Amino acid sequence: MGRGKIEIKRIENANNRVVTFSKRRNGLVKKAKEITVLCDAKVALIIFASNGKMVDYCCPSMDLGAMLDQYQKLSGKKLWDAKHENLSNEIDRIKKEYDSLQLELRHLKGEDIQSLNLKNLMAVEHAIEHGLDKVRDHQMELLNSKRRNDKMIMEEHRQLTFQLQQQDMAIASNARGMMMRDHDGQFGYRVQPIQPNLQEKIMSLVID
Asked: What are the residue boundaries of the MADS-box domain, all occurrences included (predicted)?
């Protein structure tokens, strides 16, 4: 017995609708791939489900953008307005500029230079030398900055060391003063420091 003919209308049951969509979607994608291989055709397929999800297929020999451009030319229908066309042109320009910069970077690395003529090789050499000069200048600037910082650190260390020595001397002097005051208080008299000229006289008497 053959399969019964299915009436083409919206499936009301949500679960059945999802199952049917999944089966038919897979069938459409399969047929699109088959006709691409069997007939060497350029095929593009875009499906939007009711939940907003997208399924697409495009033959390997042409991307979807090129396919839509060809459709626009052959059908005479305007898919893009002037704003979108300008944006597309700007994207193409940026892509070409990016590719050119990538090629130039490979040349600066010494890659893919076999196809360059003498003039281009001299330009690459000049660019490398200019870059080296900038690198050396920046390196020297960093070294000079490091030397200045080291000098400042050493000077700061010297000043801190001097301040610490002064503080140590002041602390020692205060300690000696406190000990002398304690000694005077204990014995009831003050020990007068020997004057320099008196000390010399005493020394001369001792020697005599």
From this structure: 1-61
